[in-house]
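We include the entry.

. . .
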Amino acid sequence: MKQIQLTLKDEAGELTETITATFDQAEYSLFNTFLALVARVKACSIVLRGIPSIVQIKWELGSNLNLSCEPYTNTELYELLHVLRPVILKREPASFHNITGLLGRRFSNKNFSSFLKTHRRLFEHGELSMYMQISLNNQPLFDESLLNIWLNGSQYHTDADKANSWQTIEKALTTENARALVMNQLQSKLKALIIIENLINIVIKQNEDS
C-alpha cells in the first residue's frame, strides 16, 4: 500500500504540516464509488444550470419572513433527491459520512479533523448555520433536523408524524419559504460533496502515480 501525503495550509495559504495515510484496495474501490455518485449529482439539470440558494433574508417589523431563492420545479427537485440518496443516507457504503469517517481515521491529525468537522457541519446543517440561526416554535430552520422532517415525512419515507410536522412548518413559513429552505440545505450538501470529491481525487491520483 502506497503512503499518501496531504499538505495542510492555513488561511493565508502558508504550509503548516504534511500528513500521511495508507488505504487498501477495498477503500480505493469505495472512493471510486463515491466519485461516481458525486458525478451523478453534478450531472443533474438543476446543478448544471446553477443550483438555487437563499440570496436574501427579510424579516421586517410587522411583516412575515421572506427568503429570496430562485424558483425550481418539482422535476428538478426529484431528480436531485434521487441521485443524492446514496450519499445522504448514512448507512449507504459510500455515503458522505462514511467517506469522511474513513478519511478521518486514516489521516489521524487534529487539524485535518477540524477540517472534516467544518465540512460535516456544512453538509449537515447548511452554510447559513455557520453565521446565523432562526427558529420557529423551537425548530431551528438552518439545521439538519428540519431537512430530515421533510425527507422522512414526504420524500424518502412517509412517516405520518413527520409529515404533519412539515405541514405545520410549511403553513407557518409559506410554501415558497419552505422550498427555499429545502433547496438551500441541498445546495450546501453539494458544496461539501465537491470539496471532499476534490480531496479524494488527490488521494487517488497519488496512488495511481505509484
The longest helix spans residues 175-208.
